[in-house]
Amino acid sequence: MPLTDHPPARKTLRGAVVHDRLAMDLTLLSNERTFLAYVRTALAFAAAGAAILSRVFGTGASLTVVGWLLIALGVLIMIFGIVRFIQTRRALRGWWEPEGEGELPTGRE
Length: 109
What we know:
Strand 1 (12-13) and strand 2 form a beta hairpin. The chain has one domain (12-91). The protein is mainly alpha-helical. It is built from 2 helices and 2 strands. The radius of gyration is 22 Å and the shape is elongated. Helix content is 65%, strand content 4%. A two-stranded antiparallel ribbon has the order 1-2. The model has no long low-confidence stretch (mean pLDDT 78).
């Protein structure tokens, strides 16, 4: 029997449908994965700027400016990633309101 012929799971888990709970868990993990991508990108920019400043690639005023710009860009990316993570987390909290509970699933149950 093909998988499409099976009805969706409708077992409840503390007022939430299991399918919905799993979808929320995946969304939370996706949000965290995106945040870690911002962190990785910010660190890469800052490391490139620090390498240029430490004269690994040569000397000169223009390279010093480029190094500081890369570090500043890394900091901005980090700030943007943090703000984006918090905004998304709050939006998910507003959406996820199981019966009798007002918090997100933690997976520690």
